[in-house]
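Dear colleagues,

As part of the handover before I leave the project, I'm documenting each prediction I ran so the next person doesn't have to rerun anything. This entry is a single chain, and its sequence is reproduced below.
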Amino acid sequence: MKNLVCKSFLAMGLLSTSFGVFAAGDVDNGEKIANAECVACHGQGGNSSTPAFPKIAGLGDKYLLKQLLDIKNASANGDPKKPKRQVNEMAGLLDNKTDKDLEDIAAYYAAQSMQLSGAQDVQVQVNSGAKVDGLKLGARVYRAGNLETGVPACTGCHSPTGMGNAPAVFPRLSGQHADYIEKQLKAFRAGDRTNDGETQVMREVAAKMSDAEIKAVANFISGLN
């Protein structure tokens, strides 16, 4: 257990220094851009009403800026040497945005407050075939991980309350749509999302998680505060 925790915190330190992205945007200008171009999908103040589009309020300016840059870099004219994140719903939407525009957008959304989605009473089927309480399983995985399979606790990076660590570029998870969190964990596990830094910390964590654990922890996180 000690080695697992040490490895997790070592990865955290390496990941937090690998992004090299620092946002210092203009909140007022970011609000103008957001209200004109982002609100239809991400909702007023970054609180989207549908799981198809993530809530981006209060995620931290460094994290938001990194995601925007990575999404922009996934376009046809992106730099193949830089991290990229393919998001089909945003294809081409950032192509004409300057880095300063993206800094401003990140600063605006980072200053907003995220609304909780709320967890649900669900059952999930584990690999024995048994159906278990999804909230209890999610809470256990989030807080303690899974020692048998090497899954570290989510609290190490994202904090016990799910508020993340903005200076270290670990995003807030608390209140996010459960379906969206589940989708991202499965994308990391499948290698469809790869912009988690050179240490591949999220890919390594997700690779060890079962479908039941992913669904359970995603549901738990949506109501965590």
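Strands lie at 123-125, 131-133. The chain has two domains: 2-14+117-222, 19-110.

All the best with the project,
I.
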